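SAMPLE LOG
Freezer: B-3
Tube label: C17
Construct: single chain, 413 aa
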Amino acid sequence: MDTRHNRFVLAILSAACVTPLSRADVPVAVSLHPPGAMFSTGRAGTGMLQAGEAYFRGDTLRAGLWRGIAGSWVDLNPAGATGSGIFGAAGEQQAGWATVGGITRASIWSSTRESWIDLNPAGSVHSEARGTDGVRQVGDAEVGGLIRASLWTGTAASWVELNPAGSEASAAYGIEGGEQVGRAFIAGSQHAGMWRGTAASWTDLNPPGGVMSVAYGIGGGQQAGTVFIAGAFRASLWTGTAESWIDLSPANAMDSIAYGTDGVRQVGYAVVDDRIRASLWTGTSASWVDLHAMLPAWYSSSMAYDVYSHGSAIFVIGSANIIDLGDQAMMWVLPNPPASCNLADITGIGGPPAAPDGLLTGDDFVAFIGAFAADEPLADVTGSGGPPAVPDGLITGDDFVAFIAAFAEGCDS
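STRUCTURE (predicted):
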């Protein structure tokens, strides 16, 4: 297939997918693929800023950012760097890597190329920053022949090793406040885990029966990742312990991974019908939403890496692939419904499929009773033992008791 023709078609398709972000009342998919790029990936977002990388013909992979549309691309590749990329963003800070002087170095930026800061610790031959909360950064650094989970506070000299005692290698991928998530190799097996600022604080999140696991994202008291169990990778959610593990994998998925969470929603991908599909969940397997279905038919696969809310919209950042053309950075923009006033607020005026509306009405009561009688997911409002347990994919007496109590309590006006 003629490459020049491919690029011409790609430019048309990218422009066709651009939709104004103000239209948060309806779900839309927005291509962030920069004009002239061969391929690109969206990795993270915050507010109206999205970050990732793009490759241009005859050039190198370049870290960069957008502000809502493909044409807003800003190149962050540092002067003298032979490549760079971004994994995380918070506020006006981006975290990733840049290869300078033949060494790949953990890096941060403040939205401009000139703001680049080298985080590579002394003695490290390779390092990458995987996430940031705007103040602190996490990632990994190879020091003394060992890849070590790492924590920084904005400078190379601030480096803190997080590698747990006895671990053969480790990496940290996400950070929120005083908590970090990632993985460590323990007795030859890869285990998801979390830290609270020191190597000694390591908590193993690998659930019973898990052959291997990784935690990639953290937000709002949740950790997101994947567990290989029963012969498949399964998108996973935790709330701080191995025992809290929730399997998010859709019932018909071959494999799945969750890369990010904002404490309410989780994103990643699921392989369904032999296609890799960008995916969104809200805490249960049954809540799975196929984001790939929002894309034009020419996209063959897609992935989602980050999710956050801003204003009246939910933003999901990732990429989508066109066969023979490569990946395009992609952003999904979804309506952000009013927050539920309590767990009994399960629908809006008129009942399902209306979203929770911050009110408790007869529509909520009727919808719950109907869903409970039919054993439908809408009635799954809590887990075993009742609140504060999160929904667990089961409809039990705990759900009934919790709903009735919350409905009787009512919402603050």
